[in-house]
Amino acid sequence: MTSRKSWRRVDGVLLLDKPTGLSSNSALQAARRLFSAAKAGHTGTLDPLASGLLPLCFGDATKFSTDLLAADKTYETELLFGLRTDTGDADGTVVMRCPVDFGLAELEAALPRFRGPIRQVPPMYSALKRDGKPLYELARQGIEIEREAREVIIHELRLLDFSGDRCRLRISCSKGTYIRSLADDLGAALACGAHLTALRRVAVGPLQIADAVTLDHLAAIVEEDRTGWLLAPDALLQSLPAVYLEELAGRRFVHGNLVSSDAVPGRCRVYAENRLLGLGEVDGQGNLQPRRVIGAR
Questions:
Q1: Which of its termini does the chain have fewer beta carbons within 10 Å around, N or C?
Q2: Taking the model in full, what pTM does it have?
Q3: CATH (residue range 73-204)
């Protein structure tokens, strides 16, 4: 008889170095099993083709997983020029072949137009929905619909290497940026087409790939040692100012009540007695409103 998994309460943030070929949900479930975590979630998906930083949340940290969705992301990517695919990456079908007859000077001259605020058309092979159906499902049926261009911000677009028909780029960008679309647009600007052959996410907001761990490493160590890789739940909130409350005000906060605060208006992470209470927001009248709270233990 097969024994059932014994789940336990685990609270914290795991910075996972996701391998290629694995979906974000599959990576999440594998990590969840390694920690025997009763509750788990992620902070946004990373394509199976891509590797790199995938912050995972366990227990209390899942309450703040959406707060990292709006964070800037940083990638290192490789492009192959001369071939355009229907997905914008190496998993797709080649739809155009062109000779590559530009050099380093032409590539460097093309990059500035993709820095700063730009308008970008989302790819058909994306999880965006139209009438409740993901665009990639329509694309697999051979259906292409018009998509509205939207503004994203490319904070950094730096050439790391160029050799013949390939280049490597470092890209720091705002929420909603599609690196596959950026590659496709750069290929169009150089009149030869291009697609991604590799993509690695190296940062999400203040979180860095240097602090991440692989599933293989976690599997190779005992469960007690794995907890050493967990960050506190407020690792997801470090970009917000901290507000510290007295014990009584803290109890009122976790029960959903307004408390007074002289903090600067805006969102904040809230503590009392050296414990994270949750996420709050201060209004212009000095009222601290609970937005998401962690219940008393």
A1: N
A2: 0.89
A3: 3.30.2350.10
